[in-house]
Design a protein that fits this description.
15% strand, 13 helices, 6-stranded mixed beta sheet, 7-stranded parallel beta sheet, 340 residues, alpha/beta, homotetramer
Chain lengths: 340, 340, 340, 340
């Protein structure tokens, strides 16, 4: 660690685990951060507690209970670089004191949106399925595409409309889809600003040829898409699951894929790694993906950029704009588990 | 066949093979066509020649040499529903006489563009490759995506910028890519209208992280992308081939995929069906596809709609607008082979 | 003039009147044209007739009757740089012989579209009216805007959907208007590709808060918007007239503006110059404009660029793509008068 | 007023002055508000103080000092419906207690953006100037447009990039302008997400053919655009001033318009109403507007909708999303004066 002493640069306590320094900071970003701030890498509780009273910001997933926060007299911002707001921080105290609680979720919006679109197009056209057939020598030419559909002009449903939903909506614009959105946290008028049609859950599933499950897990959203909703989807509908497995009744989904009622692309699983003998591994109607939608190198490197941008703003007395600002109302609702 | 007699409806000679009637006409389209025109389905030469002198239009890939055209005194339009302009028509005579020569190419722009985007996203993220790994029980979670890239902000090259290139360019808009286009048939200013950067072939391949090969085959474009061009691509570049195999030095491409220098998605092959023991079938860096980009049911049904729309316009004395109008300059250049 | 002799450059006969050389050619364009082609500026019939037999192309509004065309054995293209296809050319012969007949209409699409949008926004917000009030010392502040409306989400009607309509449609995209289009030359499906709603004339006027009159004059479109159509517009509707005055029953329009039933912006007039004592000059509900929508310097200079681009393409044996290609069906229908 | 008693609906204290109830609430919005909340219209301090201890939210520009807030034990939100955050609220206490401080600024983004675009197009084409000429009988036809320019492909500068700048940026998208943005509150990366080019003030003014002044007034932005910046603009540049007059050295701007160096459209003035004999009233190079950009009926009615939407969200324990959330860092910086 670097000792914090004898200079006036703001002290930043840093411990990005499970991310690595080089994973989230480009060399140039790291140089800028180190030059403009007094960066203290703290991996043990003792170091951390020694520096905390003079810290301007902490970057990482540190435990910050009320007692610790009471000692962090100059703390201005807590920057989470893992992706989930976990219950190891006394968020209420942070909000009362005007300490910014910031998350890196926005860096994943673009990669997950691109991935979700890729999965949807794969399901519309059978790309990975036919690649397998080709490798097995059983491909057929041109006239075999009877179950292929265009995404253009299709009716598409989005379950959840946070930063991911908005990023995906932008990618869908040139396809001229009718886009129905179900998001109980947003009023209809807020959705309409994005040229989508607000809809109830039932209406959304009944109309959607392609359904994107984008909602985060809360007490309210667990098994939001149950057997009834799956049965309400049009026959042959495409389901893209990229947020959290728990939002869907997972077994019910697999049953319907197995029966040929639906096809699906799944990036998030109830238990990861998936069991070696899991029935999903051999289902024809699935595109299988091992939690790959968000964690790509450029996204991780964007975390560092956003951290630096927002540290600079807060230091200048301006509001941070690049990371996601946690809100009093929502920060306790998320039930996502940390990255393993 | 239906006899053409005793009414004043314009006579349309129809033989859509290799397409089927029900493949290209929705019931409602067929009803409208049959009601508004005197449709004569002609499958043999004799019938055809008997009706030809009174024909208003022919729909299909009939042989129309100078002699036949000389007898087609009232002919106003020749509508090809197969997709390629073949050398079985005396096009010069058609143009001299103001007979419209129309092709159905535009119906394939949207499905091929969506497919090309799907393939590019698959290559950017390894979707079909990792689906295979998952099925083999060898998937890895999240941290394995080290070769994944975003399409957002990537530099993309398009070889060829006809209706397909334009359709794809629209789909790329929300990705904010830098798009370089090489198309020797179009002046730079025409390209710039589409917010792309005109470029030479060399500049295009040197800059492109993702290269889309969209050019049709002519004497000039055969092996346009040769070994030199492939070697000029950035290491790890993604190549998407969806127009015709002959535009690329195919073996040179496979060599580079095999060597791990490039990855590629291939929908068109020098010989189809592909040999059972073709080396491509087992290459890790390929997405294999059996000529599936264009021929989807909704595209075929759009042929019928466009045929009906343009027949109506021509009958009203207006220019056709829904099918592709062949030009004197280009119709002899295409070397695409007919659908097998 | 420059004599055409002793070299192999294609001969281009040029007489751009009423345009001037420097008005339509930038110096660099002119240099390229003069270098690549043997440009013969011909202002008298004699010169013209002497060079015509060896001409590759003519650029200007020359009279080209059958007799002259018979002598123009090598002619490949006729490029009109005035804007209207006038009845001084034997177009049928041109088409039979595959001589391209090209017009410069596309250069005016962008300036007229921007102007039409500007006029619509002026009418929505009263900009020129309130500028006049301010200059008269009678402006009122902020609370006076009771008749102001947003263009956002408004229902907009377009009468005519050629290159101008398409250019305007693009500018309207971010306003998320419902756009109804009436164009009897285009099938509904062709319109829907532009994300507009095809509609009959009556439906269009009944629904449109803002009506753009963009149609060219033909026998069919004269007084297309008559008293009945004007009365069918919603009270307070905004009418933007930028194509040709004859498309509208002009007196009926002024009557309704005078009565406060409609407001309108008018750039084209039945007789130009407008009479000094014309009642329109003092109407409060008008934005008055003296045929200014298209003729801006950058548009004129774009003519020269498009001429050069297409001459090069035709010379290379490729189809022209930058100017408007006249069609057999439409070229005789236009009744626009030449620029005075 | 309605007494608050004997029911469990959340109490909303309402006094929208200077807005009127019917000005900001549609009948249906008002009915919903009155049904779901216990709305107490309070026009005197006594009433207000009596109800405050039980209030869930206050809607209006009430004075809320520390003493009053101390008595507002159940207060959850303060909703300003005037447009400026004034120094009559103890904002720090609100933030400490998690009381949402919300403003109605977003409703003005669309109308001001449309107005700013209209003014820019007027300046590009001389619309109001030529309307005046036409009324004076001095119009000239078509060839007089020598100072007209297209907005398409122009280089445009935006000073300030809040909700207004973003709304305007969207409207500019189809014009394919190069857009430079100077906003010292936002990091470059945040700007680039909107497909604009971050730039210093000097670079912005030196490059901009059209300059939009959109910044709010703070200690830092007063006279941000001074004589030096105005002199750095290209000759003939168009300046659109729609935020606050104080951001510009107003006299220096008028000097340059008077001298023919620049043209400008001005909606906000140092003193309103403007003096009867103000020199601006007769300047040819100006478009004059009397603070009309934002205050249109539909915008005022949108205030009521947003108030209702956010009251509902806060009551459900969710974060408000429709109004602008004041931030600790910025709320004290604004120096805009209230609506007169």
């Amino acid at each position: 660690m670097t000792a914090s002493s004898g200079n006036s640069k703001p002290v930043v306590l840093l411990s990005p685990a499970p991310r690595g320094i080089a994973e989230i900071f480009r060399p140039s970003t790291w140089t800028a951060l180190s030059t403009e701030f007094d960066v203290v890498q703290s991996d043990t509780g003792n170091e951390f507690d020694a520096v905390l009273p003079s810290a301007f910001a902490v970057v990482g997933q540190f435990d910050l209970d009320a007692q610790r926060l009471a000692r962090a007299a100059t703390l201005r911002a807590v920057l989470n670089v893992e992706g989930n707001f976990l219950p190891n921080v006394d968020y209420a105290t942070c909000f009362d004191r005007g300490i910014h609680v910031l998350g890196c979720g926005p860096v994943f919006a673009a990669p997950v949106a691109e991935y979700a679109l890729a999965l949807a197009l794969d399901l519309c056209r059978g790309i990975s399925r036919e690649d397998r057939a080709f490798r097995a020598g059983t491909e057929s030419y041109e006239r075999s595409t009877s179950d292929s559909i265009l995404l253009r002009d299709a009716t598409v449903g989005l379950i959840g409309f946070g930063s991911l939903g908005r990023a995906l909506r932008r990618l869908l614009l040139p396809f001229h889809c009718a886009v129905l959105v179900h998001d109980p946290w947003l009023p209809d008028s807020a959705l309409r600003e994005y040229q989508v049609q607000p809809a109830g859950l039932r209406e959304t599933v009944e109309s959607s040829t392609v359904l994107f499950v984008l909602a985060t897990v809360t007490a309210d959203s667990e098994h939001l898409i149950g057997a009834d909703e799956l049965d309400a989807l049009p026959h042959g509908a495409r389901v893209v699951l990229v947020s959290r497995a728990a939002v869907v009744d997972f077994d019910a989904l697999l049953d319907r894929v197995q029966a040929g009622r639906l096809v699906a692309a799944i990036d998030v699983w109830p238990d990861e790694p998936v069991a070696v003998d899991h029935r999903a591994r051999s289902m024809r109607g699935l595109v299988l993906s091992a939690h790959r939608a968000g964690g790509i190198p450029s996204a991780f490197l964007e975390i560092g950029e956003r951290v630096l941008d927002d540290l600079r703003l807060v230091e200048r007395g301006l509001p941070p704009v690049r990371m996601q600002r946690a809100s009093r109302e929502l920060v306790h609702r998320y039930r996502n588990r940390p990255v393993g």
